[in-house]
Amino acid sequence: MASMRDIKRRKTSIQGTQQITKAMKLVSTVKLQRARASAERSKVYFNCMFDTVNSILSRVGHVEHRYLMPGESQKKAVIVITSNRGLAGGYNSNVVKLVTRSETLRKEDLLIYAVGNKGREAFHRYGYEIKETLPEIIEEPAYADAMQLSQRLLDSFAKGEIGEIYLAYTSFKNTVSHEPKLLRLLPVDRGELEENSSETGAIMNFEPEDVEALDMIIPKYITSLIYGAMMEAVASENGARMQAMDNATSNAEEMISDLALKYNRARQGSITQELTEIIAGAEALG
Amino acid sequence: MADNQNFHLRVITPERLFYEGDVDMVEFNTTEGEIGVLPGHIPLTVIVKPGILVITEKEGEKEAALHAGFAEILPEGITILAEIIEWPEEIDGHRAEEAMNRAKERLASKTPETDVMRAETALLRAMARIEVIK
Question: What residues pair up with B51 in beta bridges, in sequence order?
């Protein structure tokens, strides 16, 4: 049996860890609330954007537009949104797995745009080609960042350097459930759009003409998707970390009570032993 | 045409709900020129060009610098999805003036590599900012 001193040392160290995980959980809870509020605010904008793009697409019919057809290049850009820091359970690895295990995305075709350090590290390890790393923008996602990123991607798309653009992130459903998602940004997925389209009935006119309007609105649509994904990812990250830290805290609790039991048993054992020794000594003297 | 009772304007940015309320008229700049929208307008979607957004309410006028986005006009209201929009009190006049001078310089000394579209947009943006704080 371990000595009393060893057990005590172990218990103190676990208590220290527990204090840290508890504090981290509190911090994530606060951050989660903030991230969630702003994710909800950005949702209004996104929904309006979605409806508009929908109504344009359903109106123009099957038009041949460059944003609606895959580019000639075999290369596919994937924006992977992860966090900069770990200790968030499976949050980062789930997103990475989604890309590495995807059947449609072949490793040699991919160009990774890593938003967040953890994703970059993982893809670097697996030997993927990393085109850009943007660790700072996930700290405080701003619309301007999403705009610049989508601008660069669209430029590459226009130049024929990439044929398709994907987005991998963790969508935020509620505090306990987050789901990694892989979306195709370009060419715009008409099937999905039309499936969800709600027929408004109003006949919409466009100025400038439909096709020109598509040219201008689709980049904005993509920017809003990227921005929305970043907002949701931040909320999910904090949710995942909160859960992970909650589990760690209760695990520590369990270990501490287990060790307390062991400690008491060891203490009782040593008392009994001392008593036996004293009695035996007294008997020998008597 | 339509009664002036409920003409609803919503200005939404990715970060916040910028403005919401019943208005009499809305004016702003689009790719096709400046437009003023009154209640009962035909359904129309337009792309925003940098300029000033003038909101005419019952109590008076409000102005804001609207830089990018698009607007969905319906007979009973307008929804403006603004990527960038600012109230006059949020604008830094000095910065706007510097940006205007930079853009003008770029346009004046243009080489084949100059992105004229971008410089022009920057100029328009700076001018809208300066105009709205005056």
Answer: B66
What global pTM score does this model have? Answer: 0.81
* Closest CA of chain B from A205, distance in Å: 5
- B15 and A41 within 8 Å at the Cβ level: the answer is yes
Per-residue tokens: A203? 């006949």
Q: For the domain with range B92-133, which CATH number is right: 1.25.40.10, 3.30.565.10, 3.30.1360.170, 1.20.5.440?
A: 1.20.5.440
- The DSSP secondary-structure symbol of A67 reads G
Q: How far is B31 from chain A (nearest CA, A)?
A: 7
Sheet arrangement for strand A110-115: A130-133, A110-115, A76-81, A164-172, A178-186
Within 8 A of A211 by CB-CB distance, chain B residues are none
**CATH fold for the domain made of A42-244:** Pyruvate Kinase; Chain: A, domain 1 (3.40.1380)
- DSSP 3-state percent helix, strand, coil across chain B (nearest 5): 30, 45, 30
| pLDDT tens-place string over residues B27-66 | 998 888 888 998 888 888 888 888 889 998 888 888 888 8
φ/ψ bin of A160: left (φ > 0), alpha (ψ from -120 to 50), beta (otherwise): left
Taking CB atoms and an 8 Å cut-off, how many pairs form between chains A and B?
Answer: 67
| pLDDT tens per residue across span A242-269 | 999 999 999 999 999 999 999 999 999 9
CATH topology for the B8-88 domain: ATP Synthase; domain 1 (2.60.15)
Taking the alpha carbons at both ends of chain B, their separation in whole angstroms is 35
